[in-house]
Amino acid sequence: MKLEEFSAGKWRQRYRYKSFEPALIGHAWRWDDPQINTLLEDATRALGELNAFSLIVPDIDLFIQMHVVKEAQTSSRIEGTQTGIDEALMPEEHISSEKRDDWREVRNYIDAVNMAVAELATLPLSNRLLKQTHAILMRGVRGEHKQPGDFRASQNWIGGSSLIDAVFIPPHPDGVNDLMSDLEKFWHDDAIFVPHLVRIAISHYQFETIHPFLDGNGRIGRLMIPLYLVNHGLLAKPSLYLSDFFERNRESYYDALMRVRASSDLVHWVRFFLKGVAETAAKGRDVFRKILSLRTEVEHEILKLGKRTPNARAALNSLYKSPVVSAGDLETALKISTPTANALIRDLADLGILVEVTGQKRWRTYSFERYLNLFVG
C-alpha cells in the first residue's frame, strides 16, 4: 500500500460515543513522496553516526545510564511530572514529600527502561515485553490500579474529562488484542520490505492510536522506539530517545498524530518522525563528543592528586553513571572507608569537578555539574 493512499480507519458508533477503529498496518508499504527518501537518508546517516559512538567510546555503558535518566525525566514531564533531572538522581529521602509521587514515576521509568533493554538479550520486542515494562512503570504510582501489565478491558479516551467531551476516543477494548497482534507481526515480518525507520514511524502512530493500556501509553509508546532500534540492530545501545524532540515540538507532534486519524495523512507523520530521528541522533552524537572531551579534561585534572588518583578515577566512573552523589554513595560504590570517601569528595570539590548543591553542613550532596549540564536543555 502507498502511504499516500492510506485510509486510517473508521469511526464506529458505540453507546453514546464513537470510537476510532484503526486500519491494520501489517503489510508492505511504498510511497511516491521524494522528500521521505531524503529525510530517510538523513535520519539513517545520523543514526549510524550516533551508533558509531556506541561502538567506539570506551566504557560506553557508564554514559548510557544518563541517557536513560534524561529520557525518563523528559518522557515523564510530557505527562505532567515536575521532577528535574538532578532530582531524578537523588535518593527518595532527599526529595520533598510533595514531589515524591512525581519522583517515583520517573524512577519507575528508569527501572522499566533498564529491564526492557536487558530483556532484549533473550526476548524480542513483543507485546509480552511491553506488558512487563508497563507493569514496572505503573508500580506504586498514579495509575497502579489501572490494569498494570495488561491491555485494557474498558474504554479509554484522550483529552477532555469524559467520553462525552474527549478529543479522541481510541478503539473499543474488544479489538485491542487483534490490533496489537497485527502491530507485533509488523515489527518482525521479514516478508515486508520496509525500511526500519519508516516501520517504527508507522508503528508509533499505530500504538498511540490503539492506546492499548489504560494509562502510561505515551511513555510506553516512546520507549518502544529505542527498543525497536536495538532489537533490529540499528543501535548497539539504547542511545536514541525522541521524547525531547516530541516535547519541544509538542503541538506539532500531537497535531501530526491527529492529522493521520482525521485525514489519513500518514506522509506528513512519517516526515515529522524522520526529522525527529535525524535531529535527535545528531544531538546525541554531539553529546557523546562533548562527553569524550570532558572525560579527557577531568582525567588530566585528577592527575594532580598523585597517589589518590586511582580512587578519583574510580569515583569518576561512578559519577558518569550517576552524577549526583554523597560521600556515603561513594563509600558504598567504591567500597572505601568513610574518611577516604570524605577526603575524595573534598579532593574532587577542590578541583571544581564536584559542586555542593544542598547548602547543608550535614548530609551534603554533590553534583558533577559539567557532566550533568550536557544532558540539560
Structure description:
This protein is mainly α. It has 2 domains: 3-20 and 33-287, Fic-like fold (Orthogonal Bundle), CATH 1.10.3290.10; 292-375, Orthogonal Bundle (Arc Repressor Mutant, subunit A), CATH 1.10.10.10. The chain is 57% helix and 5% strand. The protein contains 15 helices and 5 strands. The protein has helices at 34-56, 60-78, 85-88, 100-119, 127-137, 176-188, 196-210, 217-231, 243-248, 250-263, 266-302, 309-321, 327-334, 338-350, 369-372; strands at residues 9-14, 17-22, 324-325, 355-356, 366-367. Helix 4 packs parallel to helix 8, helix 7 (196-210) packs across helix 11 and helix 13 (327-334) packs across helix 14.
Fill in the keyword field for this structure:
mainly alpha, 3-stranded antiparallel sheet, 377 residues, Fic-like fold, Arc Repressor Mutant, subunit A, globular, two-stranded antiparallel sheet
